[in-house]
Amino acid sequence: MTTATPLSPPGLAARVLAGYGDRVVLHDLYDEAGVPVYHDLAATDTSEIRELLRVARGGTGPVLELAAGSGRLTLPLLALGREVTALELKADMLDLLRERLATLPAGARARCTPVQGDMSAFDLGRTYDLVVLGTTSVSLLDDAGRAGLLASVRAHLRPGGTFLLSTVDRAADAGTEADLDFEVRGASGRRYRMIEHWPPGAPARGVTILPPEREAAAADRVEVLTTSIRVLAAQRLERELAAAGLPVVARHALPAGGPRHVDVLIEAEAA
Ligand code: SAM
């Protein structure tokens, strides 16, 4: 598993961690220590999968899934009977995906092609009916990366084909607090303390995940996961899509979101 240098948490999280002194062990959310927690939290949110499948159910042609990770969305797409190419940057994530594919019936397994690649510049030499980029992962790319992504997607969609992608917006009633301190429960039932640092207008939100206060107070080591997530307003993304020949035909609000953000699933069509 790759090891990224964990970010130093900003704002309130920095002050909370200072109180735990040298018992704190920092990790990046996508490192070996972070991935099980990421999966535990991601598994509680099935609203995006339901909405994606509702749209995908309308077709039968091949699907390209970008930033597929370990297959949280890939497996449900395969269960619809679609042929799926799963493109992912990191080899260790693809290994996890292959492990999960190995548990499927041979027919479903044979319909999936895992590919290591960069979603901001890829050439698979074929076209698809549907391209999917879920989990608000478009926010992982900067401006140049997004331009490359949209050009690559347009080149891989047949005319009239659909591009489905999710993004996150700050809710209209989000307030002005920079820090928000709250508790969440993973699919396993485990509780996590989450501190989000997101001053109004900031281009990214910092997320720090740690054990609940009582648990941390009693622990010899306080394992802390950090990440920074770029915020990409739906309106801006929609303008970029239209300019790339992918005009938006529908927008679906996802109920999950967070305490002060809303997730939106955008449906664009290759002109
Ligand atoms: N879609 C999966 C899910 O729902 O669990 C994974 C989502 S995870 C938030 C984002 C994924 O994007 C990670 O697996 C990461 O390795 C991958 N990724 C990051 N940058 C990428 C890029 N430029 N091209 C392809 N994949 C990328």
From TrEMBL:
InterPro entries per the UniProt record, alphabetical: Daptide_MTase, Methyltransf_25, SAM-dependent_MTases_sf
Gene Ontology biological process terms in this record: methylation
Alphabetized UniProt keyword annotations: Methyltransferase, Transferase
Coiled coil (residue ranges): none
UniProt-recorded Gene Ontology molecular function terms: methyltransferase activity
Domain Methyltransferase span(s) in chain numbering: 63-161
Protein name (database record): Class I SAM-dependent methyltransferase
Species of provenance: Streptomyces misionensis
